[in-house]
Design goal:
Helices cover 33% and strands 14% of the residues. The protein is of the alpha/beta class.
Length: 376
Amino acid sequence: MNRREFIRVSAVAGSALGLSRSSQSTFELNSGTTDVTFNTLPQWRGFNLLEKFTDKPDEWLTVAPEWGYRNEPFKESDFAIIKELGFNFVRLPMSYKCWTEEDDWYKLKEKHLKEIDQAVEFGREYGLHVSINFHRSPGYTINDMHFLPEYKEKTSIWDDEETLKACAFHWRHFAGRYKGIPSSRLSFNLFNEPTGTTEEKHDKVIRSLVKEIRTVDQNRLIAIDGYDFNPSISLLDLKIAQCARGYTPGVLTHYKSTWNKGNDALPIWPMKDHNGILWDRVRLEEHFKPWEEIEKKGIGVYVGEFGVYNKTPHDVTLRFLKDNLEIWKLNKWGWAMWCFRGSFGIFNSGRADVKYEKYKGLLLDRKMLELLKETV
């Protein structure tokens, strides 16, 4: 597709598939509520919901079958429980393949887009902020390092102009679709953990996508995951929020995970990593210093993902999480646990050393929940 055709398709998608005026009225900001900006972030606290993490399970079967969801609608019951437990945030890490026809970046599937609309509406109904994240975009997913060749992205958004145009088409569509919804209720998180390229190429892509979104909706709150797991100092002028991670050290958080080989020593906390570096509360504080520094420059920060895989002993997991959560609380940073239901989460995590409590048809890790609630 050439540039002229791309622009035509973008315009048609924005008008034909965007929410109507009457639909947008259901998303209006409650009277008296102040909208948020990149440097006035609330202390969001919540979870990642994974129904649109992948469009079909094939790509994950040899890596981690648990993540092989089937492009399902998001569950209203999750939103209701998250609200009931006292949290206020959900992040939706999604694959663009969930709303795109096979082998055509520009053919959008309205059925699945409406399922995302429904999640945004659930957020309004239950008072939860919704963060829309492209965990897999045209030309990039961090999970390509684990996938078999047939499931990897065929082009690179960092190097291929047509791929960047396709990604811009998608973000422009979402910008138009949700224009008018206040940023207090909805934000965009452009990529999940961008890495594997140069900072110069990364910055070019981010600037291009931010420009596309703001051409349609100049007020939309946008967040990025920094670059290569560090804050993006070179993008301060864009006035976008940035997201840290809470997975370090990986020898503890991903112990015996099927996609992260080589973690052999049973985790303890504090513990040494593969390089012999001691990780403890003090080391964690140093680890998050760059994020504190970028916040001092006027950039809002929150932790977009964190968690511990279910093979790490439960008592070790809780001590590690406690240190992280206390650091984030002191910094007044929000966070989103990976995940809500599943091996890192508070429900149905499959830990062998937890006595679960039955809760609305789910198995609840009560100790982990109470630890999270201490910082709410």
